[in-house]
Amino acid sequence: MPRLSNTERYLVGLCATFAGAAVAELTGSMLPLALGAAWTLIVTIDVVRRIRTPSHRN
Length: 58
What we know:
By secondary structure, the chain is mostly helical. Helices cover about 75% and strands about 0% of the residues. α1 runs antiparallel to α2 (about 30-50).
């Protein structure tokens, strides 16, 4: 299975956040929203680390 690009990972995170918000609205539990937001935050930190880390390819 191919790896997701950064853009695709962001889109998955945003979809998870919006889906989590909908489930949170229906159930009254904030856990789904928190999980979607956490995924987006993790992806953001990972992308920033990749940008700041120099590539050592020859």
